[in-house]
Automatic annotation (TrEMBL):
Gene3D superfamilies: Farnesyl Diphosphate Synthase (1.10.600.10). PANTHER family: ALL TRANS-POLYPRENYL-DIPHOSPHATE SYNTHASE PDSS1, GERANYLGERANYL PYROPHOSPHATE SYNTHASE. One of its GO terms (molecular function) is transferase activity. Coiled coil: none annotated. Belongs to the FPP/GGPP synthase family. The lineage of its organism: Bacteria, Bacillati, Actinomycetota, Actinomycetes, Pseudonocardiales. It holds the Pfam family polyprenyl_synt. Its EC number is 2.5.1.-. It comes from the Bacteria. This is Polyprenyl synthetase family protein.
């Protein structure tokens, strides 16, 4: 098997993964191929409509960062490869399920450069397909033991709680920026934390390594969302693989927007535009232009750099290795991709 595999080149481009070690690269290539096999097998259904909808996002590809991190985390232990592959497929199924549901809530029309399920079929099909994937993720994890089943159930709870808190908004007296950061830690960080936890736990890693991988996962997951917030404002739709300005259209205030609104003297026109959902394309473009020149976007980049630094600090608890170097490269990439 060649380590110059096209899938790995795409992976490097997607998450900035830098791996010089040939053996580690071979193991990740093999592991990700096995994860893809599990994913395709699990989502297969005798009911044609279910089969087509469930395979839609699996076959669209994506970063596959969560299963990748599960595989990387397993490098700090010894053994348990089959269980690690199962867990890696399960966390990706959970992620895919949340994407189906997110597209319904966002009324998105594109996902990963392709038509979203809710646009191709309808909202009901998208919601039920997400539920279908959640069910199969639970089935996979059930084979890994009661601890793993409890962990994935707790993660489901964090994901739903984060989404609910985002929908409801900050409570009276709650700082909007702190609320937002804690919400994305739940919505994005919690599943990546579980990915690292599973990889370490199922490969029999020492507990201190498992804890460090879990903390790194939550921090880097939150950083991923901040990075996406920045790119959604500062990159064209063709590079995003989805429509730009979705949050503006839905009236969702991301970190750069919240920082700008927290300024002593926020741009009055931008504050007006951010007062609610924007439905007009020209107004969306105007808001994006103002955000690109805002102090809020600059502050979001500063926060991203801080999260990347904290993530690298957590990795110091792990032994020096090509796998640790690979994790560090992801933290560096998250900052670099926003400039």
């Amino acid at each position: 098997m060649s380590v110059r595999d096209g899938a790995i080149e795409e992976l490097r481009a997607a998450v900035g993964l830098q791996i010089a070690d040939e053996q580690l690269l071979r193991e990740l290539v093999a592991g990700l191929r096995d994860v893809e096999d599990v994913l395709r097998d699990v989502v297969r259904s005798d009911v044609q409509a279910v089969n087509e909808a469930a395979r839609h996002l699996v076959e669209a590809g994506g970063k596959r960062f969560r299963p990748l991190f599960t595989l990387l985390a397993s490098q700090f232990g010894n053994g348990g490869r089959e269980s690690v592959i199962t867990a890696a497929a399960a966390v990706e199924l959970v992620h895919l399920a949340t994407l189906y549901h997110d597209d319904v809530m966002d009324e998105a029309t594109m996902r990963r450069g392709a038509q979203s399920v809710n646009a191709r079929w309808d909202n009901t099909v998208a919601i039920l397909t997400g539920d279908f994937l959640f069910a199969h993720a639970s089935r996979l994890v059930a084979d890994l033991g009661t601890d793993a089943a409890r962990i994935i159930a707790e993660t489901f709870g964090e994901l739903v709680t984060g989404q609910m808190r985002e929908t409801v908004g900050p409570g009276p007296g709650e700082d909007p920026i702190e609320h937002y950061l804690s919400v994305i830690a739940q919505k994005t960080g919690s599943l990546i934390a579980t990915s690292g936890r599973f990889g370490g736990m199922l490969s029999n890693s020492p507990q201190e390594y498992i804890d460090a991988l879990c903390r790194f996962g939550e921090i880097i997951g939150t950083a991923f969302q901040i990075s996406d917030d920045i790119i959604d404002i500062d990159s064209p739709s063709a590079e995003l693989g989805k429509s730009q300005g979705t949050d503006l259209r839905e009236g969702v205030r991301t970190l750069p927007m919240l920082y700008e609104l927290a300024e002593d003297r926020p741009d009055p026109r931008l504050a007006e535009l951010l007062s609610g959902p924007i439905t007009d394309d020209e107004l969306v473009d105007e808001a994006l232009g103002l955000l690109r020149r805002s102090r809020g976007l600059e502050r979001a980049r500063e926060t991203l750099s801080d999260y990347a630094r904290r993530a690298r600090t957590e990795l110091a608890a792990l032994p020096p290795s090509p796998a640790r170097d690979a994790c560090e490269s992801v933290a560096d990439y998250l900052v670099a991709r926003t400039h």
